[in-house]
Amino acid sequence: MSESPEHPATLYRRIVGVGVAVATVVVGGIIVLLGIGFGWGGLGGGFALGGGIGLALAGTYFWGYGNGLRRPVSRATWLPSRDARG
């Protein structure tokens, strides 16, 4: 079974989307490491650490979402309701 080739614009959007997600994870990690390394405290430090963690989590979510978009068709799955049909 051959798969149809993807449209170049769609492929480009997926690559850019995953790239942006990876960059978001990296920026979030850098913010967290800077906050810990420089010992940022108080309200500003809390915002920085929370923002860094939030960026990393959002980037991870969108990275997984972008990887899921690359899979063209879901595979066959077992459904309990189809067992009774035999």
Describe the fold and architecture.
- The protein has 86 residues and is mostly helical.
- Helix 1 packs antiparallel against helix 2 (42-69).
- Helix content is 67%, strand content 0%.
- It has a domain at 16-68.
- The protein is elongated, with a radius of gyration of 20 Å.
- It has 2 helices and no strands.
- It has helices at residues 8-37, 42-69.
- The protein starts with 7 loop residues before the first helix and ends in a 17-residue tail after the last helix.
- The chain crosses the membrane at residues 15-40, 46-65.
- Keywords: Membrane, Transmembrane, Transmembrane helix.
- Number of DSSP strand runs: 0
User: What is the averaged pLDDT score?
Assistant: 81
Q: How would you sum up the global shape? A: elongated
Largest sheet: none
Question: What's the end-to-end separation, in Å?
Answer: 27 Å
Report the radius of gyration as a whole number of Å. 20 Å
Strand content: under 5%
Report the order of strands and helices: HH
Number of helices: 2
Structural class: mainly alpha
